[in-house]
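Rotation project, supervised by the postdoc (A.L.). Task for the rotation student: set up a whole-complex structure prediction and record inputs and outputs verbatim in this book. Inputs entered:
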Amino acid sequence: MNAPTLRRACRLRTFRGLGIALLAAPLALAAAAQEAGRTPKPTIVIESQQHCIAAPEIMRREHPEMLRHQRVRTVHLGERGTKVSLNACIQCHADRQTGSVIGSDHAFCQGCHSYAAVHIDCFDCHQPSIRPAAARLTLGGAP
Amino acid sequence: MTAPPSRSPSRRALLGAGVAAAAGLALVPGVRLIELARARAPGELASGQVRWGLLIDASRCASGCTACVAACGQENGLDSAIDLRQRPQWIRKVELKQIATGRSVAAPVMCQHCAQPPCVDVCPTGASFQRADGIVLVDRHTCIGCRYCMMACPYKARSFVHEPLAQQKPDVPRGKGCVEGCTLCVHRIDRGQSPACVQACAESENGAMVFGDLNNPESEIVRRLRAQSSAPLRADLALDPGVRYQGV
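Outputs recorded:
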């Protein structure tokens, strides 16, 4: 192979390499993104990691039904001190800084609800903040 | 060196006795103004065996005293700066004056927790209801704010919330667009306490209010009703209110 031919071959190979790299780059980026979660996720800060009622997968799906069922029993039948209780949820899951489960997209309730674009009606009437520490001590948490 | 202050049972007993005295307020040995409700076990439902009621002795109710009204506002978070005509009012002091004789008498008026409540009859959604233990309540989850109950109530005991609220008490959820009224402090009763107005009245030393179970012949309220004459407000309507008055 003479010198000019060799040079052309090298140049071609370089171009081909560059072409492959250019083609592969978006794919590689896509793969990397998929590993890190390309779908945006809610950025909630979960203060309490305990499973007081059920596993998170169940709670995520079932909590509206649980609360709706219990509110009828509490208001109409006077059932108190049950595991499912909005006030008990708030006591554990309220943001440590703000003391509330709403008010920012990192807050426990609002974080997910604003992500899922589901309006929370609960806090139109219910207090979203934890009780003052003194009151919590005497009441022992959930009413 | 002196011994550290002892946290012995005696000190606790003393504290406990103080609390019990404040809550029970034994004026005469064996007579308690406040019949303490029994706290129910978790998950236990309100009992139909019980009917909660109040006895208000107007002759002991001081005309200038509004301790019960203030306590109600504090307990239920009723602070509002809205126009008086729109301000929620769960309990109010009423002063009556007989024109012929000039005799005047004062008494608090709140939801009378009728056995035959007109507010429940007219409610189109079932939001206005009566609990098994006789307490008449509004389920705000189903209340549409139509205010039929306000019109039906002969005691003007219900209010409508006209303004958005933010500082609700955790035990007393309230919100704009719903009708509300005295709950007989249902959250306190379920914990075994008496209503805030009754406690405040006892602490004010007027002791004009007695709370208790109308179905229990041994309760203080029934003993008083048996011994002395009393009447419900607007007895002619035959609504059988759970709140009875003396000396009106």
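Student's summary: The mean pLDDT of chain B is 89.
Supervisor addendum: The longest strand of chain B covers residues 91-97.
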